[in-house]
């Protein structure tokens, strides 16, 4: 009886490779749903980052100091996770000298993202800022996919994708317009659009930059 157990285990391990195509499609659809749910939850978590960084930026003298603190905490967490999981030090599947030059600059892009959010979010709010960032990311991803750049598989632009970008842009303009109208409504003494715009810039700290 015990001698047969390894054979039984091997049979169970091989079973997924013998499934009919219909079941495989269902599994792919399930995985897609799970990925979307996880992506939504991750997006919710990511939506808190500008506010957290903005609060940190207000607690230190210079925005770059807050950016440094933010990256130190992130790097420390990654270091602990890679050590605990036995994935440290990093192992390359090909020599680093054969990798494209741009592959090393992902962290630098993160510095730009965090540092700019540290400056702008406390002044304009996270919703306005994040809407603009999401639109910029979507437009960039559209062109990266269309031309197959930075290691992305090529996926030509089509009408639905363009429509999605247009809707995102409309969303950003709606948010900007809503904030402007709200400010003008709560400051009735500012009659002209020029006065309202200047006052909004002064209040946010942009007028003196």
TrEMBL record:
Highest taxon above the source species: Bacteria
Alphabetical keyword list: Membrane, Transmembrane, Transmembrane helix
Coiled-coil intervals: none
CC annotations in GO: plasma membrane
Chain segments annotated as transmembrane: 29-47, 68-89, 101-121, 128-150, 162-181
Record's protein name: Inner membrane protein YdcZ
Organism the protein comes from: Stieleria bergensis
Lineage: Bacteria, Pseudomonadati, Planctomycetota, Planctomycetia, Pirellulales
